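Researcher: Here's a chain I'd like modeled. Treat it as a single chain, no partners, no ligands.
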Amino acid sequence: MSPESKTIEIKDKNNAVKGTMSLSGALFNSDASESVVHSAVVGALANQRQGTHATKTRGMVNGGGKKPWKQKHTGRARHGSTRSPIWRGGGTVFGPQPRDYSIRLPKNIRKAALSKALTMKLADGEIMVIDSIALQEPKTSEMAKILGKLGLSGRKVLIILHEHDKNTLLSARNIPGVGVVRVNDLNAYDVAAYNNLVFTGDAMKKLQGNEEV
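Model: Modeled as a single isolated chain. Structure tokens:
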């Protein structure tokens, strides 16, 4: 039996209700474990790590070719190199070396994580659908005004678009805590990282259309 579908209001830029939209039960009524969201977030954070950290071992540090003093009869401990890890300026023991931190999750886990994350956001009333957010020109003040009318000022908000919109991106990028993403690039980490999600009507339709395919 497929999960029960839900409905959500569609609003305009002034926060006035313009209609309703049905939401896919498969996307917004998931009964998957919350652990899949955790796995997706851990994977996303791991994939952001460059792994370019490096330290020099005793074989990589310059100098140390000459024995600092003779082996015997000095009253001092035996040493063969001033680049030993116990010497100041010597090499590092077991220090970090370049490595790949990336984690690749199976496609079904990524889909389950996105669905569960959306389900939890909807249950908390943190998903909004507006008919359109298109702007005639890039203007941060206009975007801030729209978010204010939607009751989202000062919140971490992710705006999900049907396709790339330069004006929306440029208008939102200087507002602290506000992000913009295409619906095709939406993932569980994005959903979890923001307090509120604002979908355009076309983006929500495309998200559910992709799920049906």
